[in-house]
Amino acid sequence: MNSRRSLTSATVANLCLLLYICTTLVVTNGELQRFIEPAKSDGSVSFITIGDWGRRGDFNQSKVAYQMGRVGEKIGLDFVVSTGDNFYDNGLFSEYDPNFKESFSDIYTAPSLQKQWYSVLGNHDYRGDSEAQLSSVLREIDSRWICLRSFVVDAELVEIFFVDTTPFVKEYYTEEDGHTYDWRAVPSRNSYVKSLLRDLQASLKRSKATWKIVVGHHAMRSIGHHGDTKELIEELLPIMKEYGVDLYMNGHDHCLEHISDEDSPIQFLTSGAGSKAWRGDVDPTTNNPKSVRFYYDGQGFMSARFTHTDAEIVFYNVFGEVLHKWVTSKQLLLSSV
């Protein structure tokens, strides 16, 4: 009798998962896969962005997760965005790797965080079984988890375009950094990047959203340890400018940053401080142009709230204290710190 009840529960859970995916995922030929996230009844959308986090609670990951839960409740969280390097040190070794539960399900337990997590892969994720994080098996373990290489979250007034940036970086193919990468889905760097950018352009061209955001793991502009990613500046940034992207969000550098583009309205926002930070690794006073609005080398995360006219970005430290806030208006086309 107990086994029958257990089987029935598992069947119901699987059917619910399948129903969610079918009702939220839209696939259009020549474009990126699309997930639907309806805006709230007041027309607003709120989410938290976190990156470089999966360390089984160590390096203050659990403390950051606790503060995320508090902020999530305060802002009426709709979903979470993960900027990659989801599991350290080398991703997952399979879809049954206990690191998934120990670094994700067991850590982000606050009621407000029981929403969908939309994730991209980082370079550390590519060092393991990169296919594992994309597997539906993980969604059966924890239904919050959604990870694809590149895709779109359509939240009505906001569209978020997730881009798989690791294959852009040419250094990784030479293994000069001493690591090997799982390139099974990337037989050719140039053809993969070309196809991805073509699909991204089609999706951006179709977008009618008030706010357009691109999310990738690697920083486009950064004064942190890794600095700028030249391949993204050369190949991705021109497309973002052409189609009026407002924000680029990333991880990779284990810090929090806000940098303004020097010749467009695009803002570069780094949230890669979900666990281990590199405090003192870089002296920001030696490389701090006027375009750098904020830099913090400790642990923390970022929240974002959008309405049809306004956007608010807030950075928090491991104690939940506000470090930096930026507000902009589409009506006035003005911004303030």
CATH class: Alpha Beta
Name the quaternary structure: single chain
Mean pLDDT: 90
Output the radius of gyration: 19 Å
Measured between the Cα atoms of the first and last residue, the distance is: 62 Å
Percentage of residues in strands: 15-25%
CATH domain fold name: Purple Acid Phosphatase, chain A, domain 2
- Poorly predicted runs are 1-24, 332-337
Main sheet, how many strands, which sense, barrel? 9 strands, mixed
Number of domains: 1
Number of strands: 17
Anisotropy-based shape: globular
Tell me briefly what this model is.
The protein has 337 residues and is of the alpha/beta class.
What descriptive keywords fit this protein?
alpha/beta, 9 helices, disordered C terminus
Question: What can you see in these coordinates?
Answer:
It is a single chain. The chain is α/β, with parallel strands linked by helices and 337 residues long. It has one domain (34-329): Metallo-dependent phosphatases (Purple Acid Phosphatase, chain A, domain 2), CATH 3.60.21. 26% of the residues lie in helices and 24% in strands. The protein is built from nine helices and 17 strands. The protein has helices at residues 2-24, 61-75, 99-105, 123-126, 136-141, 171-174, 189-206, 230-235, 237-242, and strands spanning 25-26, 33-36, 45-50, 79-82, 117-119, 145-147, 151-155, 158-162, 211-215, 247-250, 256-260, 267-271, 292-296, 300-306, 310-317, 322-329, 334-336. A nine-stranded mixed beta sheet has the order 1-2-7-8-9-10-12-11-13. The protein has an eight-stranded mixed beta sheet with strand order 6-5-4-3-14-15-16-17, with helices on one face. A hairpin with a 6-residue loop joins strand 1 and strand 2. The longest helix has 23 residues, at 2-24. Residues 1-24 and 332-337 have low confidence and may be disordered.
